[in-house]
Amino acid sequence: MTRRQRLMSTVANHVFDWAKVEQELQAAIAQARAISKQGNDPKACAAAWDVVEELQAELSHQRHDHPTKSHFEQYCDDYPDALESRLYDV
Fold first, then answer.
1. Are 85 and 75 in contact (CB under 8 A)?
2. Phi, psi of 82 (to 5 degrees)
3. Can you give the pLDDT at residue 83?
4. CA nearest 10: which of 32, 1, 48?
5. Residue 25 lies inside a defined structural domain of this protein
6. Around Cβ 23, how many Cβ atoms within 10 Å?
7. Alpha-carbon distance 52 to 85, whole Å?
8. DSSP for 4-42, written as a single string
9. How far, in Å, CA of 51 to CA of 73, rounded?
10. Which pLDDT belongs to residue 89?
């Protein structure tokens, strides 16, 4: 299974693991740089950088669709009974 297929299956299952995709992106960048450095096959080079571009685009879309929570919001989720987590109508 290629990196792209793994990424698409992760997205399709709605289980988006930021760390996993970031790791995939870093690996794809390293591979694209290695292929570019060899300079033997321009088609392989273009394909490798296309994978990098697709991973970056997917991360960008996921960040836009699922913004990260602030530390306070995460605290409130972790400790819903804490005084700081309670909302009062005044």
1. yes
2. -65, 150
3. 79
4. 1
5. yes
6. 11
7. 40
8. HHHHHHHHHTT---HHHHHHHHHHHHHHHHHHHHH-S-H
9. 34
10. 55
The answer to whether 26 and 3 are in contact (CB under 8 A) is no
- Kindly tell me if the per-residue pLDDT of 56 is higher than 70: yes
Please count the structural domains in the chain: 1
In the numeric block, the tokens 């995709």 are attached to 21
Instruction: List the domain range (segments joined by +) for residue 76.
Output: 3-85
Percent of the chain at pLDDT exceeding 70: 74
Mean pLDDT over 41-54 rounds to 93
Residue 40 structure tokens: 């033997």
In a domain, 90, yes or no: no
Asked, for residue 61, whether it belongs to a domain, the answer is: yes
> Is residue 45 a part of any domain in this protein?
yes
